[in-house]
Amino acid sequence: MKARLLTATAVGAVLSASVASAQSNELTLCWAAWDPANALVELSKDFEAQSGIKMKFEFIPWPNFADRMLNELNSGGQLCDLLIGDSQWIGGGAENEHYIKLNDFFAAESISMDDFAPATVYAYSTWPKGEPNYYALPAMGDANGWFYRKDWFERDDIKAAYKEATGADLREPQSQKELLQIAQFFQGREIDGQTVYGASIFTERGSEGITMGATGALYAWGFKYENTPGSYDMEGAVNSPQAVEALEFYKELYKTATPPGYDNAYMEQSLDAFKSGQVAMAMNWFAFFPGLAADPNVGGDKIDFFVNPGQNQPASTLGGQGISVVSYSDNIDGALQYIKWFAQPDVQKKWWSMGGYSCHLAVLNDPGFKDSAPFAADFLAAMENVYDFWQEPAYASLLLAMQDRLHNYVVADQGTAQEALDGLIADWTEVFEDEGKL
Amino acid sequence: MTVTPIDRMARATPPKLARRVRGLSDRAIAWLFVTPTLFLLLAINIFPLIWTVRLSFTNYAANRPAREVEWVGLRNYERILTSEGIWSNMQTTAHFLIWTITLQVLLGFTLAWLINRKFKGNDLLTTLIVLPMMLSPAVVGNFWTFLYQPQIGLFNYVVELVTGTPASSFSMLGPGGLAKWSIIIVDTWMWTPFVMLICLAGLRSIPDYIYEAAEVDRASKWRQFWTLTVPMVLPFLMLAVLFRGIENFKMFDMVVLLTGGGPGNETLLASIDLKREAFEKWRTGYSSAYAIILFVTVFGLASIYVKALNKVKER
Question: Is residue A96 a contact partner of residue A393, using CB atoms and an 8 Å limit?
């Protein structure tokens, strides 16, 4: 009996040791399920070869990404060692100690934030905003941009019809209002025997879609969250006359220039509408542009890209993410090793070449960068004027309030733009009061 | 002397154990058996309920473990009960409940009444009718989303065929006031067979001799229906209403897949709103108060209803 007990204990000890050893030789990276994630899997093979650490990946579809990952973090889950989380999570990640502060690590490994585009460092890494406290390494630069059917725009019959209808030349839109005019021109038009529509835009209600879409117009008109940054004084900023006009514009774009039934559309639906030849233009994140450019049906010569048109100012809605080390990980050293590897200029160059959007200046400042892809110059232009949503720890409540207000007004036809924005201030005030910030 | 199974078990009990148990009263033995279940019930039902009540008086947020939890008294309840949005969600829930239950009872009973006859293919037809309720709500939600699609959806196409209204001119799940009815149509399609099965059980439990006696008394078919069939099936119908009422009060998955609560807040049921408050906005204290209010509502209504059901059964 005693011998049996000893044997069982020994086997148990060996098994535990091998499990622990396997864990220290494995890293799980969590991100959204989309094209760049597949590129990262390929890129990470180099890391596996160099470090001997096996990489595992947990990719969640976008509509569930925030829900799933924030639940994971809030419950102290150990699923992810590394997390490429949305920029808006940085406040919560830092204040709730979900993410490890990386300053000491960066200093020890001579990783300088000056090597990365300032807008991305500000948006993806710092908390409080702009302070030199880093909780992530900029991993994936992104902004909301546009793409269009270049082959349609270049057709003589369509150009002539547009000139006749509007008196202007058909070209890449230079302003939001020109974009609307072009979209309305294409709406319901017959092209090659098929009815096509103006533009596919974000109207999704459940996660962040309509906010990310409408802010493209709001920022271009000059929308601000606060009169003075950090003061939470929103009256007159959030509901300024410019903001009201921008929101009315977005509703008009939705009502008069989008395909039928696109009342709950986000990234996937926008891509579907464009790839199936239904729309002349579509908005989406730059992250999808490499895949679109290579699409056998609508890519190549048939497609071109443009930065979100300005109106009162040039502006684009920020996307993108930083890579953070999850504080609940049992392999923090391995995770830091990955970040050290990922921060290298050579790796960043390869990351861009594979379809990831590097934020490293060694890549962005390369003289050949602008010509390296048909959307590269637009990406640079977009990143110069990006604006992001609140990055407060209570961002989820702030975001869902905006989703509700915008969807109610734009899609469900309830109330006016002024009422929607006034209501939004009331909702946000309540959240900040609960947070003790007002 | 006859040896009963109890005697056999008593003899099989080891003497040591028998000595230990012999001193216990029947009540003590009963407690011994019931205690583990009671403990489990307390741990997984009663304790969370009490904890939720406690949380409902605080500003606790589950995603902010570092933040100090403050006692806010009745503020969460006051906010909920004075919130226009929440009253609107309650109205949406009531609209969904009333219409789905009414339609399901009418259609379910009619189907059961029609199918409760002997004809060729009866079994096959019954199986076909109950197919929708065998599907997962996730599957149902997804494929009805396609059916309702304005450009390629079969539903809009059929409407165009019948009424001449162009298929792409209206969106069943979009703005225009149709979304509320769209979710009612899908729920009715899916769950009418369930009500039908319960009614069928009720109809088949009525003995034939009662109808034969009515025939002898020369009662018309109409009279038989109203004075025999309906009263005897009523307890079954009421049970079906109770089941569907409770189920639809907490309806979540299918509506989330169909509309996500939209457009705007047009189909935002209380259960979906509660989930958003609790697990997307992480307002744990507030959502606890919300959950308690919903619990009291359902519990109160269900209690009244069960009393009515018992009265009907006693008649």
Answer: yes
Do B118 and B216 belong together in one domain? yes
Question: Residue B228 and residue B203: Cα distance in Å, rounded?
Answer: 10
Which of B149, B259, B282 faces A396 most closely, judged by CB atoms? B282
Give helix A209-221 / helix A241-257 axis angle, nearest 10°: 130
Q: What are φ and ψ of residue A352, in 5° steps?
A: -65, -40
Q: Are residues A263 and B169, on separate chains, in Cβ contact within 8 Å?
A: no
A361: distance to nearest CA of chain B, Å?
Answer: 35
- Cα separation values, A379 from A217, A286, A352, B84, Å: 18, 7, 12, 43
CB-based burial label for A247 (10 Å; 0-12, 13-18, 19+)? buried
Alpha helices of A276-416 — where are they, by DSSP H? 289-293, 332-342, 345-353, 361-364, 376-384, 395-410
Query: Is B62's CB within 8 Å of A413's CB?
Result: no
Select from B62, B66, B150 the Cβ nearest to the Cβ of A260. B150
Note whether B99 and B27 are same-domain residues. no
pLDDT value for A24 = 63
- CB contact under 8 Å between B262 and A407, yes or no, is yes
- The secondary structure of residue B297, as a DSSP letter, is H
pLDDT tens, residue by residue, A367-386: 999 999 999 999 999 999 99
CB A101 within 8 A of CB A134: yes
Are B97 and B297 a contacting pair, CB within 8 Å? no
Report yes or no: A407 at the B interface, CB cutoff 8 Å: yes
Q: How many CB atoms lie within 10 A of CB A430?
A: 14
User: pLDDT digit string (tens) for B14-71?
Assistant: 777 777 766 778 888 889 899 999 999 999 999 999 999 999 999 998 887 778 899 9
- Predicted confidence at residue A22, as pLDDT, reads 47
* Half-sphere exposure at residue A159, Cβ-oriented, CA atoms within 13 angstroms: 10
Q: Cβ separation of A71 and B59 shorter than 8 Å?
A: no
Domain boundary pick from B40, B55, B70: B55
Residue B108 and residue B48 share a domain: no
Residues A277-302: b if buried by 16+ CB within 10 A, e if exposed:
bbbbbbbbbbbbbbbbbeeeebbeee
Domain span at residue B46 reads 5-55
pLDDT tens by residue, A314-325: 999 999 999 999
CA distances from B188 to A183, B52, B192, B256, B300 (A): 40, 33, 5, 16, 25
ipTM of the complex: 0.77
Distance CA A281, CA A260 (A): 15
Rounded Cα distance, B315 and B304, in Å: 17
Beta carbons of A264 and B63 less than 8 Å apart: no
- Give the length of chain A: 438
DSSP H/E element including B274: helix B270-279
pLDDT in tens, B270-295: 999 999 999 888 899 999 999 999 99
Is B237 part of a structural domain of the chain? yes
Can you list the domains of chain A with their CATH numbers? 27-142+320-387 (3.40.190.10), 144-317+394-434 (3.40.190.10)
